[in-house]
Amino acid sequence: xxxxTAFKGRKLALFGLGGSGLATAHALLAGGAELxxxxxxxxxxxxxxxxxxxxxxxxxxxxxxVTALVLAPGVPLTHPKPHWTxxxxxxxxxxxxGDVELFVRQRRIDAPDCPFIAITGTNGKSTTTALIAHxxxxxxRDTQLGGNIGTAVMTLEPPKAGxxxxxxxxxxxxxxxPSINPSAGILLNxxxxxxxxxxxMEHYAHxxxxxxxxxxxxxxxxxxxxxxxxxxCLERAxxxxxxxxxxxxxxxxxxxxxxxxxxxxxxxxxxxxELAGIATLRGAHNGQNAAAAIAACLAVGLSEDxxxxxxxxxxxxxxRMQPVARRGRVLxxxxxxxxxxxxxxxxxxxxxxxxxxAGGLPKDGGLEPLSDWFGHVAxxxxxxxxxxxxxxxxxxNVRYEITGTLDRAVAHAAEDAANDVHEEPVVLLSPACASFxxxxxxxxxxxxxxxxxxxxxxxxxxxxxxxA
Length: 468
Description:
By secondary structure, this protein is α/β, with parallel strands linked by helices. 34% of the residues lie in helices and 22% in strands.
């Protein structure tokens, strides 16, 4: 745990007592802060109190001597309207921050020069974060991985010289981290998302820009207009900008040319890495992820040889285009994290012959955004509440059957794929749906897929299904 000594002896209010909120509360108490915490969920309040955290309804406290409000990232700061605690803090001129800001301030106190890589973007940030941490660890660096990827940042080991931090940041976390200053900051891409919490695309982009604007090296994907404008703006302001692209040749920066990652300086190029044969880094989207990871690792002092070794041994992000098993020529891929059509697109684009398991709790837009990739689908196996609607969309364009449940879908897809003469048929779970009709979350759904695959005869597992 990181003890947050930056607020030692000062009174702080904290709102939000979920997993990261509890971790933050303990970090503040360990650092000597005078803390009072609350949550709209009374069960969480009782649990926090039992865990030794001082609690009180923040409507009843004296805000005049409160130094800061520490807000959980899931609590609205501005849209659709500020949370009531935000109104109270603003009325008294109290600073509003989050756990990433606490980490940033503690790093500044304990080890301001320890390498800190922060990653954000609408898509791909979790894979890029995991890839960077893997490369660093494989190269023998003391590496801490956390943030939005699932490990609360204040539960990591404390900053110290030579310790590397790799932190995934959501837009909510960046909004609550006004002084974020990574050694290398990555902004992968921007497309409309979370606008219910940011109001407009302009505000969403402005929040994301803060991460790279404060970075020693700003690594920015330039395959969309928003990020290109941000890169141009940062360069005009004198920032050190490294551009990356998955589709365009760059005069300066890192770009994907097919499966090759090319480094360019003043128009001169050289091959940095070759992704062909790395099953966990298939697809153009992973060209962008790899280019960003390479740029970040070089920025914090790794050699190209260390980086290419790390790329080659990357096992992938769990539940994100993760190869989990083989049976003969058939590859089984877990992409349970694809909870909407846009998230499923990279997997459908990356494989040529797919036995596709899709469905669950449907989201707006259905499958229509994936129509460009229907030609890659040999047959679809539809599960959950979305099955009838998905069947109507697929119509006569794609063969399908409504299997209803995941176990039946795995069994039928495996049997059909085994009879396919293609060089590498793929049984792909990429639901394009939320899981909540049948599973508590996408992780449990993905683990169920792995377990069903493991139960097939003559299958060779590529992951430990007992730990999945």
